Every structure is written in C-alpha cells, then in structure tokens.
Amino acid sequence: MNSDGFPLWDQKRVKRYKELGLWENETFGEMLTRLARIHPDKVALTWHGQHLTYAELNHRVERSAKALLAFGLKQGDKVIVQLPNSFAFFEGVFALFKIGVLPVFCLPSHRFHEISHIAMHVEAVAYLTSEKRTGFDYVSLAHEVKESCPELVHIFSFDEMDGLVETGQFEGETDLQVKVDPDSYAFLQLSGGSTGLPKLIPRTHNDYYYSVRRSNELCGINEESVYLAVLPVAHNYPLSSPGVLGLLLGGGRIVLADSGSADEAFQLIEKEQVTITALVPPLALVWLEAVKHRKEDLSSLQVIQVGGAKCSAEVAKRIGPAFQCTLQQVFGMAEGLVNYTRLTDSEDKILYTQGKPMSEYDEIRIVDEHENDLGLNIAGELWTRGPYTIPGYFKADDHNRKSFSQDGFYKTGDVASVTDDGYLIVQGRMKDQINRGGEKVAAEEVENQLLAHETIFDAAIVAIPDDYLGERVCAYIILNKSFTIEAKEVKAYLRSKGLADYKIPDVVHFVDSFPETGVGKVSKQQLRQAIVQKVLMNN
Ligand code: J2J
C-alpha cells in the first residue's frame, strides 16, 4: 500500500501486461478526446429523445473539467458521484477523468449512512449530484453529508439534461493542460462486501480499460451497437461489462433508460433499434412476463446479458426463445474478474454455466477450507488474480490481509466449480452477504445498526430464498428483557438511520435465542434452514 492508502500492483505483472499489449496506456479522458476526433458527429448518448454526439459530449466534458479545476479540484482528489442515468453522469465522470480526479461511484439508492461513511473514508472534497429528481431530494442529502464531513467543501449540482450549471465562463478554446498517468488510479467503486460498511475498490485506467476492451470483443460491440442502459450506470456491470464505457470505446450508441420497467424499455428498444442490454435475474423475469403481451417490435435485439446474481437454468432457457436473441450470462465483480458465456457457445454452456473468465491471463484457483487446490468439477472458494483484478481495497489493511493471499489472489467468497473446459458454475457463497436480486447486502452492516437500538439484545441477518429476487433480507432479533417493538418499527428505525432501502429487512422474526455453532458463534446456517422450513410450510 502506498502512503495515500492505495494498494500497489506487482510491478513484474504490470510489466508483463504491458509487454503483452493488454495495458495500452490510454486514459479514459484521452479515449473520449480521441473518439470525438474520429467520429465527432456520431451520436454517443440518447436520453429522453435527445441526442449528444461524441463531439458534443467531449465539449461539455471539457467545459466542466475547466470549471472544476477553476473551483480548485486537483489531481488525486476524490469526489462523490451520485448521478442517475442521465447526460450529467457522463459529463461529470469524464470531466473528473480528464483532470485526474477520482470519482467515487455511489448509487442513486445510497443514503446518508453509506455516503457519509464513504466520504469520510476517502476524504472526499466534492460531491456531484443532480437537481431534478422525482421522489427524493438528492441535493439535501449532499448538504447533510457535507455537514458531517470536514474535507467536503464543494457540492456541484448538475442539471440532468444540461449538465453542470454555470459553466458558461469556461467555454474558452484553451486545451486542458492536465496529464494523467494511465497507471494511476482512475476511480473508486463500491464493494457489496460482507463486513461493516462498503469497501472501496480502486481501479486504474490501464486495468479497467483492458477489461472494457476485452469485454467488447466478447460481447460483439462495434460502431453499429446500441446499448440500452436500464441498470444504474454507476454500477460496475452496466459501467464496464461491456456497459456504457464499452459502448463508447467501441464507437456505438448508449440509450439511457430511467428504470428497468418493461414498458419503457420495450418502447426504447423499438424506437432506438437497441441491439444489446444488460439485466439482473429479477428484471429478466419481469421482462419475460411482459414480453408475452408486448406490442413493440423487439427484433433489433441481438443479445440480452443476465448477471449480478445467479440466473437459474429454468429462467435462462426462456430468454432466447422469448426475445429471439442470444443470452449471455455474466458473472462478475467490481474487484475485477468477469466471466462471460461466449455468444457462439452451445446451449448447454449458455444455460448451465456462468461463463468463462474473459482473459486468458485471468488466473483461477478453487480451494478448500485449508486453502488446498481442488480439482475440476469440485466446488470450493474461488480465488483469482489477473490483469484487471485489484491487488487490494483502498485504505483497508486488516481487511486486505483476509481478502487477499500473500501472492495477490483475491479471495472472492464465492463458491464455484470449474468445468473440464474452463467454465465456472457458481454453486453458492461463503461470504456473509445477501444477494437481493443483484443488490448486495452485507449482513454485518445491518446487524450493527440493529444492535445500536435500545430494545435489541442481538440480531442476525440471513437470506430468505425468494422466487423473484433469488434472496430477500431476513432479520432475526432477540429483544432485551421486558422490551417490545414491532417489525415495522424496526424497519422505520433502519430507514431513519439512513440505510439504503434495499438493505431494510423484508422480514423480521423475533426469537428467544439463536442456534450456536460449537465455538459459540451464531449458526447462520441453522437460521437459514429454519427460514427455509418456514417458507416450505407456508407453501
Ligand atoms: C452468481 N453470482 C453472481 C452471477 C455476480 C458484471 C456482472 C456482475 C457484477 C457484479 C459485475 C453473478 N451468478 N452471474 O461487477 O462487472 C455475485 C457474486 C460476486 C458478486 C459481485 C460485473 N454475478 N454475482 O454483480 O461487485 O457473489 O458485481 O462476487 O456487485 O455478485 O458483485 P458486484
């Protein structure tokens, strides 16, 4: 780790990745400048029926970049970015890339609890947010976070369509004079995590750029591609697998949707002739229902990606026939490794595996509890290392010692097996996390909040199996003697603490004691079994 809290890449591997031509030494800022030169008049972004060409996007980005510099932002600073799918997201993020300032990608669903912690941890100096949003006041949230975070001095409020307000004075022709090193860290992503608050995932221009370029090759992205972004683009999957960055790098077009609703999406697919989109399994289920009654012509669609949580073979089987297109399973993680089924794979692979690592230089180990390597087709913990997998989290020494091996393998916490021809099948999970339809909830984070409540003696968060979301969040609670509280009060309390909505338990059970393992720890396995029994009995 360097003195700024960033993990160091092994220089021998870096040298090799460069010699192999994997790391190409172009930053994301330079990428946009180059693309705006190559095809200035091609449409890069479409949103609410409005278009931005590559040149227009680049112009807005440069104008904002100059403004942000003038406000005092400097290379290496970190900035909270909480912007929805909108022109503003691209303008803000690329402006930061161009001046070597690191966006910290928060999701629209994050609230005070998450963002204030993150802002403190990274010592964020600014917050990019948007003015016009229905239902939630993001600007007030930004101000609340600013109050609690001494380093945070600027709130930049973007108009979702027109971008950074008050940039007129920075229209000048002067070039940006900032040189950004492609080996430097470009941004911080959030990990779903399994302990406490989200860990921060630092990605360099070089490593991330490679993952995006390689994704484009495997997902068939070219200048004709039109990508419909229905998931929040700040998330690693729609950002980079190949996601919106892939589409820009490939010279294609991004169509931004405000939600995953099938109504909105189907209309956009027809109108904008969308060729590829990315879904999480619950959305795929909704679309499968909706497509039975659709009026729109969806024949432009060539590929539907499904990832973020396991897509059951039963659901996978229905997607190709229902949409007359190719299904691509994507098993990825913001820490790095991304696996894809290939577009030309046999049906067996597409339906029953979660794909193969995208790079031949991805190293995979499947290990048992003693860290011994297991053979093919045997399930164990997945470890990985490679040209785009992080060597460590940001400022997290203790956690890094647990999550990374001495020789730099990331211990994913996923349980998987590898087939004879190198495809991964996700079998389960070791980490104490709930995957709620692709949104990750760290059990400990919610438990800690519950434990702070005066009526609660002990709390355990476990997953309940769910047909639609895959898993939902269940809280088991032991109350302090002579206290009572209702489930809805527990939920309201967590909301008042500023927890993102998807972390609020769907179900709360009050019990007198928890089953324990031999060593006096709560047996989550037994709690999970109890929940499964209950679900079965109710059916
Ligand atoms: C089972 N579990 C999966 C899958 C992710 C592409 C796609 C997804 C993510 C992502 C991503 C899964 N089957 N197909 O970053 O670039 C679970 C695993 C994994 C964790 C990572 C991308 N796809 N998962 O979901 O960082 O448990 O990234 O370790 O949010 O999601 O979550 P996240």
Automatic annotation (TrEMBL):
<dbReference type="Pfam" id="PF00501">
    <property type="entry name" value="AMP-binding"/>
</dbReference>
<dbReference type="InterPro" id="IPR050237">
    <property type="entry name" value="ATP-dep_AMP-bd_enzyme"/>
</dbReference>
<feature type="domain" description="AMP-binding enzyme C-terminal">
    <location>
        <begin position="445"/>
        <end position="521"/>
    </location>
</feature>
<dbReference type="InterPro" id="IPR025110">
    <property type="entry name" value="AMP-bd_C"/>
</dbReference>
<feature type="domain" description="AMP-dependent synthetase/ligase">
    <location>
        <begin position="35"/>
        <end position="394"/>
    </location>
</feature>
<dbReference type="Pfam" id="PF13193">
    <property type="entry name" value="AMP-binding_C"/>
</dbReference>
<protein>
    <submittedName>
        <fullName>AMP-binding protein</fullName>
    </submittedName>
</protein>
<dbReference type="InterPro" id="IPR020845">
    <property type="entry name" value="AMP-binding_CS"/>
</dbReference>
<dbReference type="InterPro" id="IPR045851">
    <property type="entry name" value="AMP-bd_C_sf"/>
</dbReference>
<dbReference type="InterPro" id="IPR000873">
    <property type="entry name" value="AMP-dep_synth/lig_dom"/>
</dbReference>
